[in-house]
């Protein structure tokens, strides 16, 4: 999804504190755009800035939903910038650790994160996109996990660890060993993306979905993300304990009372996250 240039000055974050990402606010939706054209290749700086942005947005009450996308339509992200520099062992470790940190942050971030994927989604870009809670793909999106054909070991905690939990052993091995390109429809059939949207309708539909999600109950979203993640990071038993924990919190919340009242009064609820 191309970066929004039609926002009023008050709706865009100034001064721009980042080199490789752009942040825009529109109502309760914040969009983070990976901005390293032409293919938004990932660098240490980009990963550091993504982490910094999510840290800032966690405490920003006005943000209820985050959309993560890439600049332009050629690529969400084509993965690591292999031409940036020859990596030493130390820099490779730093890159790996930051990649893992971003994947972990997306999963543990307490607000819903929507990936808006246009064009190529490869390697590190694939890991980032798949870690998002909802993954919306334009009909022109393309996916690749061909690390074996570059001699690269995937090490961000996605392809070799999470992917089996997400789509199953056989499909994960098919992706990683065959390393072939997938179109958006194939990715949807495998469960990699939530839905496929025609290219011409993509920006409008992403905005519609993000607006809807931003109106959901913050406490419930926290419960959903934390409990679902616990099922494979910890155990089903740990997830059940979290379910109990969050249900007790939710049952006493103003948001639950507001949600029930709004349902009975046939109006949209106004949640406050408490």
TrEMBL record:
<dbReference type="InterPro" id="IPR001753">
    <property type="entry name" value="Enoyl-CoA_hydra/iso"/>
</dbReference>
<dbReference type="GO" id="GO:0016829">
    <property type="term" value="F:lyase activity"/>
</dbReference>
<dbReference type="InterPro" id="IPR014748">
    <property type="entry name" value="Enoyl-CoA_hydra_C"/>
</dbReference>
<protein>
    <submittedName>
        <fullName>Short chain enoyl-CoA hydratase</fullName>
    </submittedName>
</protein>
<keyword id="KW-0456">Lyase</keyword>
<dbReference type="GO" id="GO:0006635">
    <property type="term" value="P:fatty acid beta-oxidation"/>
</dbReference>
<dbReference type="InterPro" id="IPR029045">
    <property type="entry name" value="ClpP/crotonase-like_dom_sf"/>
</dbReference>
<dbReference type="Pfam" id="PF00378">
    <property type="entry name" value="ECH_1"/>
</dbReference>
<dbReference type="InterPro" id="IPR018376">
    <property type="entry name" value="Enoyl-CoA_hyd/isom_CS"/>
</dbReference>
<comment type="similarity">
    <text>Belongs to the enoyl-CoA hydratase/isomerase family.</text>
</comment>
